[in-house]
Structures are given as structure tokens and as C-alpha cells.
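FW: tagging you since you asked about this chain on Friday. Here's the raw sequence from the shared folder, copied in full. Didn't touch anything.
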Amino acid sequence: MGPETEDALVDLIRTVRDTGYRFTTVTPASHARVNARPDAARARHLRDVLGWSRPFSDDAVPSDVLAALQRAGVVDSEGEFRRATIRLSSLDDELFLHSAYPPDSTDAVFFGPDTMRFVSAVIAHLAQREKPVHRAVDIGSGSGAAGIAIAKRAAGAEVLLVDINPAALQAGRINARAAGVAGIEPRRSNLLDDVEGDFDLIVSNPPFMIDRSGRTYRHGGGTFGEGLSQAVVEAAAERLAPGGSLVLFTGSVIVDGADPFRDAALATCERHGLRTQYREFDPDAYGEELEDPAYAEADRIALVVLTATRPA
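HL: got it, structure written out here
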């Protein structure tokens, strides 16, 4: 994707924002159910086009938005209809570009309810934090939503968006430009392997599912999907500056009443002398996944927030 295309996508986001557009992205499972309704076969308005990823005719969108979609090259033809190849979703008074539904490709840039939960946890941490943030990193940044939220609240901070997915780095750069925030630097890195120095704030919402398709945004590895989350804890424990904190939003599989990820993560933090807070954000999420044989031993999948801080 060249500079001209990125410029066109930034212009598209701003053009859509000027219409008053807002859209809350649901899970893929909910999206499938809503789009399966008889009256959802074709788009009737802009939210159907850029939120629900439905095929549309030209009269379903304002003419300036259609022109912006075409300039950005993010609309395909389907017979007499068209379909947008990206989505735009609302969060923190911004619009975020991410992959169209269904997000089936291995390099899909995912944005959903967990993105909103993650960003809310990061914002809550920033609101109660006393030490200023000079350098921050969002590991597995995806759309860049968390890093952008940090940059909006920590004026002058250097904020790195790191991801192994080039499409995610492009989306983060475009979303940061559209939001008008400074200090954002997308950088390709496997965890923190390819970035240097310590950080005042490390945030992450890594993949935490067992995904048989191996999609980058979803497959966490390990026994129950916890592999990447544990790797983030270990990487952050090595790179937190004095007074620095990790905010990790992830899923944890509860097995026979126990939380193996919690035990492993807190043990890592204890070894590195970090103070910790661990809470269940939602005790029972993604219940449909329990039908997968990979979760045959699971009681439930909880959404959790781990905050780990190095003493100043």
C-alpha cells in the first residue's frame, strides 16, 4: 500500500466521520446472525455498507463517500452491486479502519468487542496513574486503537505500535493519522524482539483462542490459547522501566475451577519483583467455543485484566 492509497484512506475516514456515522462492531458470531436475517441481504444505508459489510447499490451511500471509497480502492463489484473491503467502527470518539466481515484471512486486522474492553481498561489505568508516560508500546497492536488512546492522553509520549502483521501496521498508521494524534510509530516486531529500550507503559490484547485456521489475530497457542499472553508477560517483565506498568487484557480458560494462566503469569511477575492486580472482567465469554474439542476440559472462558507494575 503506497502513500497515495494511505492518503485516500485517511480522507475516506474523515469524509465518513463528517456524515455523523457511528458503528459498534459485534463479534463475528453475532454479525453472522444479524446478516442472516431476511431483510439484511442488501445495504440500505451507510452503516450497512461500512459496518455490516453488506452488498450495496450506489444510492445507499452519499456520493462523496462513494467517490472516497473508489479513490481508496476499497470497493469491489459484485454483479450489479458493490461491496466495501474494509469496515469502520466507533471507539473513543474516533473511527477505526479494519478488515471487512468475515475476517477469515490469516492477515485480517481484527476489531471487535474485546478491542473496546481492552481500550477501556487502558483508559482506566491512565486515569488513575500518577507517573507520566514518556514511552509506551502496544504489543500486537491490530487497528492501533489502544496506542492511539494512549497518545491522546499522554501528550508528547512516544507510542510504538508493534505487530507481526504488515496489514495491521498500515491500519494503525492510517487510524493514527485520521485521529490526528502525534508520537505514533508503527514497527514490525515479534513481541518486543525488534524494539529497544524500556517502557513506562506496555499494553496488549493478544490472541487467546485455539484457532484451527491459524489466523494471526486469533490463535494464541499453548494448551488453551494462553501461549502468547504468557509470552507478553515475560517480555514485559524484562522491559518495564521503574514505575512502569503492563496492562494485559486477555482470555483465560478455567479448568476444574482453576486458572492456569493466572498462576503462571503471577509467578512470572513475582520472579521479576512486579506488583500485580488480576481481575476477571467477564467470567463467561465465548461460550460457543466450548463445543470445540480443544476446550473439552474447560469450565468456561473468562476475560481478564492483569496489571503488573515495577516499583519506582
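FW: DSSP finds nine helices and eleven strands in the chain.
HL: agreed, and The chain has a mean pLDDT of 95.
FW: great, closing this out.
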